[in-house]
Amino acid sequence: MQFYIMTLFPDMVMEGLNTSIIGRAVNNGLLGIEAWNIRDFAFNKHNSVDDYPYGGGAGMLMQAEPVYQCYRALEEQIIQKKKKKKSGGAVKKPRVIYLSPQGRTFNQEMAEEFAKEDDLVFLCGHYEGIDERVLEEIVTDYVSIGDYVLTGGELPAMIMVDCISRLVPGVLHNDVSAEFESFQDHLLEYPQYSRPEIWHEKQVPSVLLSGHHANIEKWRREQSIIRTAKNRPDLLEKAELSEKEQELARKSLQTEG
Ligand code: SAM
What we know:
single chain; alpha/beta; five-stranded parallel sheet; 8 helices; binds S-adenosylmethionine
């Protein structure tokens, strides 16, 4: 899978994504990450890419043209690369995600959908955002990482790349570990423990030491339901629960607090 990040701060995103699991996946050729510097497409001698918003108001706005030229150069590279791989036929345009507090809130379901793409382009805004006209021309998806405002789209892009990358086969050493995690089946993950068996006088739940796999699975499922009911009851609306499990969720909700 190939990620392209259009940004004014390419070093920030490349340094942030160059470590640990994602960095290793890039080194192994499972992922490609390129940061494209929008400033390289500035069209004035001062290399500036921002200007005052029409109508007044606080702050500066990223201008349409540098963003557009950066995108066109990037799109051309993607198209040429795809044409080389595939003989004949139309080449599909990549999805272009504008990181914006005004977008749909990012979640695991969206990550799974984006992970099906071969190429993803991220557009990071800065200052007060980007001239609306270029967004209308190039953006396919508006995505927010939450109801708060940051200074730029770089951290949101890094969050999305990290989350989507974990779903690419081979990126996690053990592919199973991406399967049983929070938000799978609309439940949060059960509590986990590692050595030692007793720490600060707290004992690991005995069922986990029993070696009885069916009982362990049952305990984990119950713990997921209890935890979800307590921390994120909104998720339970979509979770598929048996009658017994619904009863457990109801009891956990009642004992909450
Ligand atoms: N004036 C814009 C508004 O009110 O919608 C906010 C601009 S913000 C200061 C600058 C940039 O940060 C945005 O263009 C966007 O790329 C990014 N950004 C800020 N908050 C974000 C969020 N919650 N999710 C995704 N991107 C965000």
